[in-house]
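Tutorial, part two.
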Amino acid sequence: MLERFTLYDQPMKIILINCDSAVQENLARICEGSSRDLFVFSEKDDLEQVLRASDFDVLFAEMKEFPPRWWVSLKEIKSNSFSPALVIIGDGSLAEIRAIQELEAEFFLPKPVNPTQLELILKYIGLAVQRDEKIETLEKERQQARERIDRLVQQQKDASLEQELTYQELSMAYAQLQGLNKKKNNFISLATHELKTPITVIKGYHRILLDERLGQLSTQQREILLESEQNCIRLNRIVNSLLDFSRMETGRFELIYQENNFAETVSHLLTQVEESCRRKNLRIEVHLDPEIPRFKFDRDRINQVLLNLLENAIKYTPAGGSVVLSAYPYFWERRSRTGRKVRSLSRRRPSQATRSERGTNALYVEVRDTGVGISKEDQRQIFEEFSQASSTRMVKSGLGLGLSIARHIIEAHRGKIWVESEPPRGSNFFFLIPLNPADLE
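Running the prediction step on this input gives:
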């Protein structure tokens, strides 16, 4: 006798039809204490109704006669998707064998039935039920996984479509921005050219009046005209800045290299800021090394950079302060694109010994003031377009293009410009330009 099994104790509904008392007793013993339900019927019962309920898992049927009255109902059950396990008990006659084949019964037990066979059959059916449940569970999981994959694929398709649409929208927006930027540059160029003519006329009238060619001026009249002339000059610089900005945007910004004397450039520049220094009672000092050689640079553009740095120093330095312009030859050590040391910039102020010992290949220029200074945060952005220092002690004026244009000019000369400042101790602006740009190739 096999041991009572609990490993495959699957809940099952078992129906017995026409089974003798020995089969019933053995099955009752096997199912005792398990989750199996045993129902016993005979030919006297309404078997068609029982079978058509189709809610059982195993059917044990003994054929007393052939064909039995419940034969048609059982065939219909086997033809449906629900298919219980059939165990036929008989004598093994040819008719029974054919019936078993026609019904596609899973088991045939000859009489008398061995109890061990009954237990083995239930074990097998329990395994089959467990297998079917696992298959059903796996099928559900597979279907769920398939649905998740389909959703992910669809999400990916939607994301790709959205990305494509976003790319197209960005491309269209970029094209529109390019068109607007072109219109903006055209407008700036046209407007600034239109402004230059009346400004030139106004400047000419100022000179005629200040030269007293139309009559002598009183002291008050001269002061008013000088103030008006200074503002006209300032307006002309704003217009020129807009023109330069437009040229930089459109790639039409070019340098005119000629051999010039830097000292003469500075001397001419000082005459343009003397009046501003006198009005604010500022002391301006110039220290130019006599060893600065003549070299090729765009005089007008370098003059523009120096004028911007000096005017900023004058603007943000309180009355009674000082502005110092220094320049001398300097050895500029840099690195090539391949990493080979050629000439690399040192941000520290160079010493005279360094210059004399190593020779010179660049011009080092510094503009120092005793103004309000520039914070560390502002130092990182003041060389950008339309950017100004945010200090509350600074009176904001202009378009914020001066230092941006200065940076562009110095970099076009293959040079470098930067600032050092510790508020409120003033600011130091520096720039380096090579004496011979061809040496940097």
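The chain has three domains: 12-113, 150-253, 255-440. In part three we will examine how such features are distributed along the chain.
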